[in-house]
Amino acid sequence: MPVLHAVALAAVFLFLAKALAWGIQRVRGNAGIVDGIWAWALGLLALGFAAVGPAPEPARWLMGLMGLAWGARLGTYLWRRNWASAEDWRYAQFRAEWGPQAQFKMFWFFQFQNIFTLLLAGSAFLPAAYREGQPPVWALVLAAVIWLVAVLGEGLADAQLKAFKANPAHRGKVCDVGLWRHSRHPNYFFECVHWLAYLPLAWGSPLWVYSLIAPAVMWLLITKMSGVPLLEREMAQRKPGYAEYMRRTNQLIPGPVKA
């Protein structure tokens, strides 16, 4: 399938996926469910691009399986967490500010997010699916190793945070155990690492440079836009001890605790 046709189909798929997410949040009153659908949709796009791309099978199917497994793990975690919880304060704030137009604006806000989703999918998955020639064996191994470290690390960070919050003795306290002792956002750190896993699969191809866009976009989203800035501003105001936690703990990259 020509690459432009694949991108067009991906855009239609994302529009429908976010429309479904909007319909569910309209019934549930919880826009956070879109996060799980976002991850699932990206995983399915990886598999779809692997199926229609002309690249040699090892590179594109490794890419497809990595993307699908990542999306299945993260999407299921986010879906279960958000389905059973109150609406994330950021979505709740949007809903309050938008008033009577909340549903209309929420629909198009979901669709606006597809710009970044399509940019992630296109830059990470398409170079591996539409490359010419086979990448070297070391590149396939490196891609798998980076992916494994990223997914296991993000899964561990999610599990540690979930266990901390489940303990009634920790109510109102800052999670600073395990990976969270060395990074304020270890889950975000490993999410950024995950998008580096697709670079080796495009190595040796003129398309390789485009693979750099995905980790750059994810880093920008997390550190400058919807991730860390909004979350930390709210946490520093609401949660006692968080300002001190920010002082002694690296923001993203795990490191030693500061005195």
Task: Please supply descriptive tags for the structure shown above.
DUF1295 domain-containing protein; UstE-like; 259 residues; globular; mainly alpha; transmembrane
Describe it.
By secondary structure, this protein is mostly helical. The protein has one domain. The protein is 69% helix and 0% strand. The chain is built from ten helices and no strands. It starts with a helix and ends in an 11-residue tail after the last helix. One of its GO terms (cellular component) is membrane.
Oligomer: single chain
Largest sheet: none
- Helix and strand succession? HHHHHHHHHH
Using only CA atoms, what is the Rg? 19 Å
| Silhouette | globular
Distinct helical segment count:
10
Low-confidence stretches: none
How many beta-strand segments? Answer: 0
Secondary-structure-based class equals mainly alpha
Question: Percent of residues in beta strands?
Answer: under 5%
Determine the N-to-C terminus distance.
57 Å
Average pLDDT, rounded to a whole number, is 91
Provide the domain count.
Answer: 1
What percent of residues adopt helix (DSSP H or I)?
55-70%
GO cellular component, one term: membrane
Protein name: DUF1295 domain-containing protein
Keywords: Membrane, Transmembrane, Transmembrane helix
